[in-house]
Amino acid sequence: MISDKVRPHHLQRKAILYVRQSSAHQVLHNRESSALQYAMRDRLTALGWSEVEVIDDDLGRSAAGGVQRAGFERMVAEVCLGKVGAVCAREVSRFARNSRDWQQLIEMCRVVDTVLIDQETIYAPRHGNDRLLLGLKGSLNEYELDLLRQRSLSARYEKARRGELVVAAPVGFVKAGNRYEKEPDRRVQEAIKLVFDKVEELGSARQALCWLHEYNLDLPVKQTNGDTAWRRPSYSAIHRIIENPVYGGAYAYGKTAVAAGYSARGVSVKIRRKARNEWLALKPNTHEGYVSWERFEAIRTMVSSNVPTGRHHGAPKHGDALLAGLIRCKRCGRKLTLRYSGMKHYIPRYSCSRAWMDNGGPHCIGFGGLRVDDAIEEALLGVVGPGAIAAATAAAKEARERRDQVRDALSRDLEAARYAADRAFRQYDATDPANRLVAGELEARWNRALAHAAEVEGRIAMHDAATPAAIADPASLGVLASNLKTVWEAPTTDARLKKRIVRTLIHEVVADIDDVASEIVLIVHWVGGIHSEIRLPKRRRGQRNSTSGNIIEAVRRLVLIASDDLIAGLLNRNGLKTGNGNRWTRERVTSMRSNYRIPVFKPAEDGIEPWLNLSNAAKLLKIAPKTLRLAAEAGELEAFHPLSDGPWIFARASLITTAAQSIAERARQNPRYPTGSHPDQQTLFSSTT
Fold first, then answer.
1. Between the CA of residue 502 and those of 153, 325, 497, 527, 661, what are the distances in Å?
2. Where are the alpha helices (DSSP H) in 162-258?
3. Could you read off the pLDDT of 474-508 as tens digits, one per residue?
4. Residue 314: other Cβ atoms inside 10 A
5. 335 C-beta neighbours (distance < 10 Å), count
6. How confident is the model at residue 67 (pLDDT cuts 50, 70, 90)?
7. In DSSP terms, which residues pair with 260 in a beta bridge?
8. What is the C-alpha R_g of the chain?
9. From CA 9, how far away is CA 601, in angstroms rounded?
10. How many separate helices (H) and strands (E) can be counted in the chain?
């Protein structure tokens, strides 16, 4: 029976049958639903339509509004042109499950007088009751979809809270029902353990990445089909391993959130990482991990603190400044910025300029970093010095017991390469030699596998040849530990290692300047909770690189008898350097004298020098130079000896005194023993004659 809502002008236009299913899984497996939807064509024929168009472009697309539906848009366009008399679907929910698309379709059908048909009845949108009923059905369809989604998510979240929802396993794990199990491949296991070991040893993910690249070691990655492949390590791959709680033996769910973004290109989905306190579930010790949960948290915290923020110190860099990222201004609480100056850019300077850089505010404090680093270094070595010998012995023992990680990794790669070559050979051996299309390809694969195995063998040989000699014995390490300052100041000691030691013992340093006393005030917050204060005089420009006071005093004595050229040779012979560590020249001696207002040597016009060296003084007294030197060393005659490997300086006035004449007379009376004994000196032994 034809409904009275279907009029002749409806039948003169064509009818559209809309077929849709929400997912590809439904299209493949719910065949009966597809058959029922296509069977609605018979209903349209029974109602009187001779021209029926089937639109099934949206098979596998949801009607919730998140994806674009080309078939639905084409259907609405046909309706707007007035070419459609009826639109049909098995259920009206097939048209749309969101209010925007649904109301658009109803409004267009009302304007052009198009009826909607499903398996139950016919709706005429121009009738008020039908329009009301269609509006209610559209709202119910949308609510039904939301209710189904809510129920599904509630069940999913409840299973996750119990730690039983395992969606996918990361690399190094496989799904075993509702839990994780380690990958049975020992090569994969050792590679993941190596990542944690190197990050913990080197202190940052980037340094571990550089180490892996240095030795050409690959890391496993999980492919989309679930297989494991080996790729060149990347920074993101290392971070995914050290930040995933699964490797620490914990179950975690709800670490990310999906946020819809809108732009000119349409709707885009963005994945946002959530804070740990927002995760849906985090259950430690639920399965066997690659590291313990405590070690995993320690490594994660260490890597997180490498970001230079207000709360973190940042990763140790190559610069020589020990307190980079550790020192804070007492006046404003901001961290001090660091810059290097000097011709070679190795002189650090700490300054509180963050307020000026951020807001144009004034500078708080600023001071040179060399003296500050020296003070911190002295305090640090004083703390670690008592345990240095025990630490050196423990380090030697650990080094002897430590496996060669690179050698082990290459050995595992070689074992895998040989297995692949053997497998390629067995495939080639099993094929028919006459079938050259197959045999040729398998032979090429076998050759590639053999070449890869030979390459790994060559890398192992190169590594063995480059392996350094065994470390020194514990006795020599104990000697070095007893002189820890020498080891610390050695040019081969890495600056990053020194900074890591500093950050292990010192939590923070708060700095201020006492303008009244002209001192730098450092408050050191040690990790153990102890605080100490260090006060340093604020130096003037160039004060650290100034010439040593002992050298200045020696030059003051030497100018009495020597020229600048001769003084430079004497200083170099004694191994003395300038403030900048250079050798002495005549020009540098002249500059130093001018700076400290030391007079230049001028020979006496009458030839009678007021100051004499050892040879000239001995000639004046007419005695041997050795006799005079021994008398000066014994203190019997006043003289100056400014350098250990340098001249003696005598005043002419001291050589004409009674003491000098007495020494000369005694030497002439006892020529066999040039210095002799003083006549007033008593012996400690009694006479035996």
1. 50, 11, 9, 10, 63
2. 186-202, 205-214, 235-243
3. 555 555 555 667 777 777 777 887 887 888 788 88
4. 17
5. 21
6. confident
7. 269
8. 45
9. 127
10. 25, 22
Tokens of 439: 């045999």
| Six-digit token string for 570 | 């004497």
pLDDT tens digits for 471-483? 555 555 555 555 6
Token readout for 125 is: 């949108």
Residue type present at position 100: R
What's residue 124's pLDDT? 92
Active site residue 22: yes
Give per-residue pLDDT as tens, 162-216.
888 888 899 999 988 888 999 999 999 999 999 999 998 888 888 899 989 988 8
CA 405 – CA 194 distance, rounded (Å): 8
Q: Which of 339, 316, 318, 336 is nearest to 327 (CA)?
A: 336
Q: DSSP secondary-structure letter at 442?
A: H
Model's pTM, two decimal places? Answer: 0.61
pLDDT, average across residues 381-391: 67
Amino acid at site 275:
A
Distance CA 432, CA 439 (A): 7
Structure-token match 């885009």, residue found: 268
Tokens standing for residue 12: 């003169």
Distance (Å, rounded) from C-alpha 270 to C-alpha 317? Answer: 34
SS3 267: strand
Dump the DSSP string for 450-472: HHHHHHHHHHHHHHHHHPPPPPP
Q: What residue type is assigned to position 446 of the chain?
A: W
Residue 228 CB-half CA count within 13 A: 19
Rounded to whole angstroms, the Cα distance separating 553 from 547 reads 10
Quote the CA–CA distance of 123 and 456 in Å, as a whole number: 74
Instruction: Identify the active-site residue in 3, 22, 23, 304.
Output: 22
SS3 399: helix
